[in-house]
């Protein structure tokens, strides 16, 4: 919003494609954006062009927080994509998350605003990127899983986005560890450690 105000002050507002703007006006976020712009116009005695309002709408839709049941709809396209991600993890790492409904729901809900960010080419910065990367297994799983998204939408996801997925996989791995009954085995070999 600050940058938008600065752009308007120096008379270099953003320009949007008219078709994108028409589509954005159909979103619930456009109403929210209009309210924000109205308040800014009154507070700073400045006039916002429609393109700037559309740009704010685009950012809001790319960061949507799910707060009601109608927003929690995951399309069949996204659900199939999540299934491909889970199948790929099973194939590459032999970790079966197919029965982890919590993970499936979390990935699906995460993908809904991600699709908007991909559509509008928005980058969501992850302030915890370096900390998340320390959990190497979860980050690697997320990297492999998000390759399905990259293939499907023909994009390259930044590590910031991959790291958000890694958080979901980290939690799932922790759940997975507690559910499996691993046996502790002591192997003794008379011919030595090398054998």
List the helices and strands and how they pair.
Blueprint: H1 2-9, H2 18-24, H3 28-44, H4 50-62, H5 76-93, H6 101-119, H7 129-133, H8 136-153, H9 159-179
Give your account of this protein's structure.
- This protein is mainly α.
- It contains 9 helices and no strands.
- Helix 5 (76-93) packs across helix 6 and helix 6 packs antiparallel against helix 9.
- It is elongated.
Give a short overview.
The chain is mostly helical.
List the keywords.
195 residues, mainly alpha, single chain
Secondary structural class: mainly alpha
What is the share of helical residues?
Answer: 55-70%
Query: Biggest β-sheet: count, sense, barrel?
Result: none
* Model regions low in confidence, pLDDT < 50 over at least 5 residues: 65-71
Q: Average pLDDT across residues?
A: 85
Radius of gyration: 22 Å
Encode the helix/strand succession as letters: HHHHHHHHH
Q: Given the structure, what is the number of helices?
A: 9
From the spread of the alpha carbons, the general shape counts as elongated
